[in-house]
Amino acid sequence: MSLKIGVPSKGRLMEKTFDWFGARGVAMRQTGAEREYSGAVDGIAGVELVMLSAGEIPRELAAGRIHLGVTGSDLVRDKLADWNTQVAELAPLGFGHADLIIAVPAAWIDVDTLDDLDAAASAFRAAHGFRLRIATKYHRLVRDFLTRNGIADYQLVDSQGATEGTVKNLTAEAIADITSTGETLRANHLKILSDSTVHRSQATLFLARAADWPPAERAVLAALATQLGLTPPAL
Ligand SMILES: Nc1ncnc2c1ncn2[C@@H]1O[C@H](COP(=O)(O)OP(=O)(O)OP(=O)(O)O)[C@@H](O)[C@H]1O
Ligand SMILES: O=P(O)(O)OC[C@H]1O[C@H](OP(=O)(O)OP(=O)(O)O)[C@H](O)[C@@H]1O
């Protein structure tokens, strides 16, 4: 047995995760070819690296198939019901920043806030006979946010990528997606509603409450937490 840690298997998140652990004396590396999803950890005994899609790490944590995992705080909150009963946040890692926001066409000059969206949604329904469509892949986070803000006259439409294009393609009137530089929103003639930050996301190290935590794994966790300069979590 060993302590399994799931990390993003490609791209910027993978590289920055490796940098973060490496700077703390835990050297992670990809083994095999560039596209081969296997890895190893040096500098600490008993830790096994599992390379996974960032989007699948929340599910693997919830199932207890990995003990620890690095992924975006947005993905954990969206993919897991009552996320903090299933995982514990051990440390924000300071990279992978992105804001989940709601945006509407820049041409909607009277719509700048959630209250304006609420009014626009009612008017839209009266005019068109169906609810204003908001395209997103963040269903749970967006639904909860809109409910908390008293907005009900809308429907979510699923978009798993290129979400900003749905407005131009006439499959949605508004979108809820992550933004970092804002370039994609600008290029698609969309503007952010000023009070619509649903979540400020960053890459985060999570612990799986449902994983097996026999004494050997607890000891590895304690050693790893010390090495990383984290308070060892209570299990
Ligand atoms: N500019 C950005 N674009 C996309 N994701 C970003 C950006 N900045 C930070 N992130 C974060 O990266 C994470 C998504 O990473 P990634 O797209 O690799 O995941 P994935 O859903 O597993 O992708 P794929 O399905 O392509 O494997 C999210 O937590 C997101 O908030
Ligand atoms: O604010 P920006 O810096 O422009 O970044 C935001 C964009 O990046 C992400 O898309 P990604 O490239 O991951 O592709 P996707 O649309 O397939 O999710 C996100 O969904 C936005 O579209």
UniProtKB/TrEMBL annotation:
Residues 54-211 form the ATP phosphoribosyltransferase catalytic domain. GO terms for cellular component: cytoplasm. Pathway: Amino-acid biosynthesis; L-histidine biosynthesis; L-histidine from 5-phospho-alpha-D-ribose 1-diphosphate: step 1/9. The keyword Amino-acid biosynthesis applies. It catalyses: 1-(5-phospho-beta-D-ribosyl)-ATP + diphosphate = 5-phospho-alpha-D-ribose 1-diphosphate + ATP. SUPFAM superfamilies: Periplasmic binding protein-like II (SSF53850). Keywords: Amino-acid biosynthesis, Glycosyltransferase, Histidine biosynthesis, Transferase. Coiled coil: none annotated. InterPro entries: ATP_PRibTrfase_cat (IPR013820), ATP_PRibTrfase_HisG (IPR001348). Its EC number is 2.4.2.17. GO terms for biological process: L-histidine biosynthetic process. GO terms for molecular function: ATP phosphoribosyltransferase activity. Catalyzes the condensation of ATP and 5-phosphoribose 1-diphosphate to form N'-(5'-phosphoribosyl)-ATP (PR-ATP). Has a crucial role in the pathway because the rate of histidine biosynthesis seems to be controlled primarily by regulation of HisG enzymatic activity. NCBIfam families: hisG. This is ATP phosphoribosyltransferase.
